[in-house]
Design a protein that fits this description.
Elements lengths: L13 E5 L3 H12 L2 E10 L12 H6 L5 E10 L2 E10 L18 E4 L3 H10 L3 E2 L3 E2 L9 E6 L5 E5 L1
Parallel strand pairs: 1-4, 5-9
Antiparallel strand pairs: 2-3, 3-4, 6-8, 7-8, 8-9
Length: 161
């Protein structure tokens, strides 16, 4: 494919996580992280949307989840990051376990703070599981600290200075 056929990727728009309880997750990220809710959509249910010309339901065609029912909220998490939280109520066979960092599809959201130790105390006091701080004493990040945290829903965050 020629370069002139490649679209121009301008910037990141958002990160999206599926959560078990949308209201609780929005409340957590707005109250604890200071996020601002921008909008909500849904519930959107495949059963309520006309199938496409190929007979597949809208959710199968557009989000690769046949029979889905979802509600989403878009948050402004930091000045340069929108954060979409999605609650699926269908299909019934959706999985509850999250991948570990080492698993295929494993992921985490990295957030920069002014003080990693202060963030560790604050997040622990607000229901997060805080791992041990990584103190980096050599290499290109010497003098920095990183900290992995699980939010109350099991999602991994990396807090960095």
């Amino acid at each position: 494919m020629a370069d002139h056929d490649r679209p121009l990727f301008i910037e990141a728009d958002h990160v999206s996580w599926t959560v078990p309880d949308l209201d609780a997750a929005v409340r957590f990220y707005t109250e604890v992280f200071g996020a601002t809710e921008l909008f909500r959509m849904g519930p959107l249910d495949a059963a309520d949307i006309s199938p496409g010309d190929d007979g597949r339901d809208w959710m199968a065609s557009h989000v690769n989840v046949p029979g889905a029912r979802l509600t989403l909220a878009m948050l402004k998490l930091t000045p340069n990051l929108n954060f979409q939280l999605v609650q699926y109520d269908k299909p019934d066979d959706r999985r509850a376990e999250l991948p570990r960092n080492c698993d295929r599809g494993g992921h985490h959201l990295g957030l920069r703070v002014d003080d990693v130790d202060k963030a560790a105390r604050y997040l622990a006091a607000h229901g997060c599981t805080v791992m041990e701080t990584i103190v980096i004493d050599a290499g290109p990040l010497a003098g920095h600290k990183n900290l992995y945290v699980l939010d109350p829903f099991g999602h991994q965050l990396e807090i960095v200075d």
